[in-house]
Amino acid sequence: MDGGRRGGRGQDRSGGAGAAGQPNLVAPSDVPALSARFWVLVVATGVLAGFAGAALMVVLHAAAHLTYSYRSGSFLAAVEEAGALRRVVALAAAGAVAGLGWWLLRWWTGPGGSEVSTALWRDEGRLPLRRSLGTAVLSVVTVGMGASLGREGAPRLAGAALASRLSDWARLDTAHRRLLAACGAGAGMACVYDVPLGGALLTLEVMLGVLSLRLALPALATCCIATAVSWTVLPEEPTYRLPEVGLSTSLAVFAVLIGPLAGLVAVGWVRMIRIAHEHRPAGWGPLIAPLLVFTVVGLLAVPFPELLGNGKDIVQLTLSAQVAAPLLVALLFLKPLATAGSLGSGASGGLFTPTIATGALLGSLAGQGWTHAWPAPAAGFAVIGAAAVLAAAMQAPIAAVVLMLELTRTVDALMVPLLFAVTGAMLVSRRLDTPSIYSVRLPAQ
Predict the structure, then answer these.
(1) Please, which residues bridge with residue 435 across strands?
(2) What Å distances lie between residue 36 and 42, 172, 202, 218, CA to CA?
(3) What are the phi and psi torsion angles at 408 (to 5°)?
(4) Hey, what's the torsion of the CAs at 42, 45, 49, 51, to 10 degrees?
(5) Which of 18, 194, 242, 299 would bridge 408 by S-S if both were Cys, CB 3.0 to 4.6 A apart?
(6) What distances in angstroms separate CA 58 from CA 54, 155, 364, 399, 431, one per listed residue?
(7) Three-class SS of residue 348?
(8) 444 pLDDT above the threshold of 70
(9) Closest CA to 11 of 438, 392, 21, 3
(10) Which parts of 203-320 fold into alpha helices (H)?
């Protein structure tokens, strides 16, 4: 299981990504034996990441409640009940909060980045604590107000920043610092989605770029501890409720065919994120651009309220086969555009759930045509599409499969179709030398 370099051509451990894949940050041979002190830091990181993730989700729900009177259940239902005018006003307000908030935060904290990928792959795992926690809070507030971005960016950032501060206190070397920061980021995500194994694999396959038993143990420990800690505040339940899906030859054949198409969609999605990131405003732009872009998203949400939020409700609708083909086509085009535009405006947020939503829309749309020729459970189409696009977009096939199984609490019936689809998507994305949605956002050196 221990491995050397993984990914595309031209990678190096200094943090530079090649055309495809992830940088190989920490090889097993780079990390000396983990001391008792390091394991104490692992436990502390898991506990802190769990509490931070839970606290951020409380802030997110508070923002959603104040903006849309949201209490529980479907966020989309609260958005629809709020009415068209309120959606536009809410998104304009979210843009104002994003622009002014991040401008004030930069003024208050001074220079320094607050991107997990940049910190791990370029800055030796160092993250400024005040800047990172402030960015995390602003991120979940804007997502709670309806920004078309993922919620996982905030707990990932908070977990990594807290681990970085613990590393400063313990005076860890670079390899151990990067390992602990990556574990903190994975734990932050694991606790808010209740995906301890998926979070650990995300730490290894995406953030460290290597699968190794030695590195897996601290990743598993931090994610499990953080998830258990978060249960004191957050509900212990699957993110998506999936109707029962039995073994199906139709789904297996569908997966073989949809995999390459999902790979192409993922390639387009990653390139869209790259363009958005490269055109983020400078100077006074970050103060104004979020207000303008978010207002446009709010106007689009008048006929398409599904655009607001991270896309969780879109995925649930596709799993329940509640979206007609014309709406699937519209959302498949508009949701990625709204997310990329929001990111390109200078706002901070995640891409995990928007990526899953894009794949679920693709799978559901293709499945509606497929089922006329060879019937199969509709929910299976959405899960297969989501896993394939997620795997190719993250350049992490194993993590993507496990994450989808944990998010839906599905184990046996969909395993083979998921692997078929993920394999096809990965082959296409690798053939086209596609980086991941995380490494593509690294600043140019």
Answers:
(1) 21
(2) 10, 13, 25, 12
(3) -105, -5
(4) 110
(5) 242
(6) 6, 12, 32, 27, 42
(7) coil
(8) no
(9) 21
(10) 213-230, 249-278, 285-300, 312-319
Contact criterion met (CB below 8 Å) for 366 and 273: no
C-alpha–C-alpha distance, residues 70 and 146, integer Å: 11
The predicted structure's pLDDT at residue 324: 94
**Which domains does the chain possess?**
28-230 (1.10.3080.10), 249-441 (1.10.3080.10)
Nearest Cα neighbor of 290 from 102, 61, 86 is 102
Mean pLDDT for the stretch of residues 79-96: 96
The two three-digit tokens of residue 265, written as one number: 């969609």
Q: Compute the Cα dihedral for 153, 159, 162, 167 and give only its sign.
A: negative
Measured CA to CA, the distance from residue 383 to residue 296 in angstroms comes to 30
Taking only the tens place, the pLDDT of each residue in 369-406 is 999 999 998 899 999 999 999 999 999 999 999 999 99
CA–CA separation, 11 vs 151, rounded Å? Answer: 29
pLDDT digits (tens, 9 = 90+) for 352-365: 999 999 999 999 99
- Kindly report the CA angle at 32 between 30 and 35, in degrees rounded to 5? 145
DSSP symbol at 231: T
**What is each CA distance from 234 to 27, 112, 237, in whole angstroms?**
35, 32, 9
**For residues 392 and 346, is the Cβ–Cβ distance under 8 A?**
no
Structure tokens at 87: 């959606």
Q: Residue 443: how many CB atoms within 10 A of its CB?
A: 11
**Amino acid (one-letter) located at 381:** F
